[in-house]
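Both lines are retained for reference:
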Amino acid sequence: MTARIRPATPADGAFILALAGRFSDFELPAWRRQDEIDRKNRDLLQEALDHPGADTGFFVAEAEGGAPAGFTHLHLETDFLTGDSNGYVAELAVDPAFEGQGFARLLLECAEAWARTRGCRLLTLYVYAGNRRARRVYEKFGFAPEVVRYVKVVQGP
């Protein structure tokens, strides 16, 4: 595979926003709605694209020939227990046409390098329990669960 990772540019906005649906493309918990997740993710991505922070990074994976294949959005967060800075993978998505070709791994390698250059000891992310595809990728790359969030519906919508 001939691929490269590069910083995202404003011209990548439409591609990045088009992948927002990847964050709900699996079996969701009964109390979550796909349209709400997609809308919120598009809004967060648009805000991040419009107002990039000093401690953030947006990167695009390109396939051979320059076609965008995926992206990741990174930022620093403070570790609750230690107060240290952690790298945080806010979003990572690969276009379905390029899935299974190593682009997620390349984006995770980019995220790890980005965090390392900022002195981070940990690289963190969140993933829905039902997103088995993403969990397999993350675990293969060396991520391990740390905290499991439990939810109980106490009132209807």
In short: The mean pLDDT is 95. The chain has one domain: 4-140. Strands lie at 4-7, 56-62, 68-78, 85-94, 123-125. The domain at 4-140 is CATH 3.40.630.30 (Aminopeptidase).
